[in-house]
Amino acid sequence: MTATQNQLASEDLPRGWVLTQLGEVISVHSGEGLTKRNMKTEGKHAVYGGNGVAGYSDKYLIEESKVIIGRVGAKCGVVHLTLPKSWVTDNALIVNSWGMDTKFLLYALRTMNLNRLSVSTAQPVISSTKIYQLKFKLPPFNEQRHIASKVEELFSFLDVGVESLRKVKAQLKRYRQAVLKYVFEGKLTEEWRETHKKQIESAQKLLERIKQEKRKEPKYREMASINPSGLPEIPNSWEWTRLGEILFLSNDRCNPITSENQRFVGLEHIESGTGRLLGFGKSTATRSTKNRFKKGDLLYGKLRPYLNKVWVASFDGVCSTDILVFRKNSFLNNEYLAAFMLNQDFVEYTRQHMSGVQHPRISYSTLSQYILPIPPYAEQVVIAEKIQKTFSITENSEETMLQETKQAEILRQSILKVAFEGRLVPQNPNDESAKELLERIKAERFSNKESKLELPCYVK
Questions:
Q1: Contacts of 382 (CB under 8 A, 6+ apart)
Q2: pLDDT (tens digit per residue) in 159-192
């Protein structure tokens, strides 16, 4: 008995199963590339690459549904199931199998972490030889079908739950936008204004004080006056203004090579559409000039502005030059401005006015033209506090949903683990054993009929 046979025989297997190598029950071959002319965004037949559907075509390469494996690049080892009459590009391997239920094979391969088999080159590529050498627990054919059916049934329950979580998350996003609309119409603080109307400075006087300060800037220019006709109605104590009239842009630069190590914030560290910071790096890990910011400054991502990356700094540090820094000051509450930048109307403005194709950006001069409502400073503070309190509730709900989604994925892995330990479905002692099935497969494959192999006893 060979070393490999000894190793296979030593495995603890469910009754009726047999341990073999994948190369005994499958073969793989690369798909075929498609020209751009034949690749379409719409068509009769799906085109699959290493990451699933990559487009459509009027032609198809395979007749039946097939399991495919990502062959090159970042999606090496990713396993998919194609639709019938589809095309598979040379970015994926097509799997032919014998004596195997297709869905069972799909789930089995997904548990094998095939990406670990990729050869590390300039572009990782997966080796078919290494795939063939993997140990594989083969159940009787009927048991394969029962396992696959039960896995699909349990996964469908999880899918329903995950889809419900996705819908709730979308509803929370719409709820936040509804809150912001309500806020910036002045409705959230109606009662507060009534009880404090004799104690607060009007927004008109506030804007006059801001303008006096802005005039001290070397490049100050008067902005065009605003015609309020056509704009939404706002409280009497509020005023319409342009962003450029109230923002104080910082030009404080930092060379990370010659400066002390500081916390570095890049666009990747700011969560899209929430105003939350996901983390930070070290300035010593960067080379190019950066913008310096201080605690309380407002940071806004000008690259791909539709991603809506806004954050009020909770510490001093440096950031990417693709982030505009607006200084904290005594005239405006930056938390109020950050909340305003999260509303959908503002995001749509930036989307429509950005420039560039591959790396679209919005300039400060364009941003400065945006018209927004400004309440008295004291009311800004109250609004920011109310928004923070309301959004903290939604954030807690989202965190709970995230944990539930992670739990669903853990349950999927648990289901697959139990399935491939032979404990998911009851066994039928009358089923033909996997050993007998494997002998049948070997006999058929080595009778020079591999490409035309038929197993009428097993295949519908």
A1: 189, 192
A2: 999 999 889 888 888 888 888 888 888 998 999 9
Whether the CB-CB separation of 26 and 94 falls below 8 Å is answered with no
Q: CA nearest 241: which of 211, 270, 262?
A: 211
In a shared domain, residues 207 and 128: no
79-81 and 26-30 as β-strands: parallel, antiparallel, unpaired? Answer: unpaired
Among candidate residues 296, 336, 288, the one with its CA nearest the CA of residue 317: 296
CATH number, domain with residue 283: 3.90.220.20
Domain assignment of residue 321, given as a range: 201-375
- Ranges of the chain with pLDDT below 70: 1-11, 121, 448-460
DSSP 110-161: HTS-GGGGEE-SSS-EE-HHHHHHSEEEEPPHHHHHHHHHHHHHHHHHHHHH
Q: Is residue 94 part of a domain?
A: yes
State the residue for tokens 């982030």: 323
pTM over 0.90: no
**Quick one: which of 15, 11, 5 has its CA closest to 422?**
15
Q: Cα–Cα distance between 68 and 54 in angstroms, integer?
A: 13
Task: List, in order, residues 6 or more apart from 427 with CB less than 8 Å away.
Answer: 14, 15, 16, 143
pLDDT tens-digit map of 50-61: 889 999 999 999
Query: Does 259 lie in the same domain as 365?
Result: yes
DSSP 8-class letter at 324: E
